[in-house]
Amino acid sequence: MKADNKFILIIFGASGDLTIRKLIPAVFRLFKGKLLTTGQFIVLGVSRTEMSDDQFRHKILKSDFINSDDRKSDLMEDFSKLLHYTRLNTSEPESYSTLKERLDELCKIHKLPENFLFYLSTPPSLFEVIAKGLSKFNLNDDQDGTFKRLIIEKPFGYDLSSSRELNAQLHTCFEEDQIYRIDHYLGKETVQNLLVTRFSNSIFEPLWNRNYIHHIEITASEKVGVGSRGGYYESSGALRDMVQNHLFNLLAMVAMEPPVNMQAQSIRNETVKVFQSIRRFSKKDIRKNIIRGQYTSAHIGRKKVNGYREEHGVDKNSETETYVAMKAFIDNWRWSGIPFYIRTGKCLPTRVTEIVVHFKSTPHYLFKERHENVDKNNILVIRIQPDEGILLKFGIKTPGTGFKTKSVNMDFRYSDYADIYMPEAYERLLLDAVHGDATLYPRSDSVEEAWKIIDPVLKEWESNKDIKLYGYPAGTWGPENADEIIEGKENQWRYPCKNLSNDGIYCEL
Fold first, then answer.
1. Which residues belong to the active site?
2. Cβ distance 330 to 255 under 8 Å?
3. Most CB atoms closer than 10 Å: which of 125, 208, 494, 509?
């Protein structure tokens, strides 16, 4: 959907990796796709680095994240003229007068209203500082019919206490409806399609409850290790980095009740209810239903892969988890008693994110002696990435005499729509922020509710050193102990592949 609003996108941390790697390329693709046009917007990069407009443009143009054909095109030349830069000491409140003056100047030159989108691509420690600096010079004031919106990247706090403090600090400068907390997982096409799959198809919604679903898996695996992010990851870990935000937000989308309408407020109200209904982990549950692991060195093919403790910036005796598997329950009418299995990890066999719905088997399975590679439970797979799509597994009779059966796949892939451009997550979320659509942005109360679930787990891990941290060789699916939390002898984790339709431990990765 094309944006009609005229605005200025102000990116704090403009000389940093996220801006060069994700944000500017996303804005360019929106420009290339004519969802943003010349005369409608400009970009103002802000950071402490000394640079002119032309130097900033050159930095963008030589980036590997702009492909060579686009880099040489007339379109890129037109786009580069929309890029501007100003140096700012973000920790000095008085320096924001310089930013206000530059914005006033750019609004006059480009004939733009004072509609400002402030993107904080900075460490979280600067969120409050920048918000107060903007507020000091009324750059948060939208009472004149213009909009002022603040976009912040995760982490939204380090624990429950810091999350509440951050929200309180931001709310002294910006109203909640001005704050957009970005979670790029929610910008993916298949996450949004999950709502359409559930609420527009009568073959799914009547079955989407404890009467017909046996359990649900949510997996987000990464093939790479922490790489150069060891210093950051040491203070984070998989539980903070992935579960509290990305995976819990996917869980909320899967488990939420039908909203009154598809407006942001209604959808966000329902996701908060999911977090409020997730059963809190007792000390016994933490030991029994949560497995944490850390990858160790191994040979994958002929290549030796370092263990986590051998990575740059990581303590040699680190207890930071790179893998988490969790069994959670939602105590409400729809989901009472149904386990939700969540896992995430680094240095696993492949990069994949998916939601797997396991339906209950028929009351009496008639073909158990005549089946060949057949699942008694129907399975619905919603693939977030890669090979995005939806897969339904069900049993059929094989041709011939008798009742020999096997499992088959019926799938849909977004790649089938090769002629339709699918915006990437940052493109979609940036465009939503321009429109003022906060549907896919977590609200402050949902962030705090998610921390209420995770906080006791983190504290228990910190205070009880006898809770095991299991090692797992790089390139495997995590600690074997993770299988112990799956209920039922016949049930196990799904082992996904890059290809949506393939699965199994020995699949092509």
1. 246
2. yes
3. 208
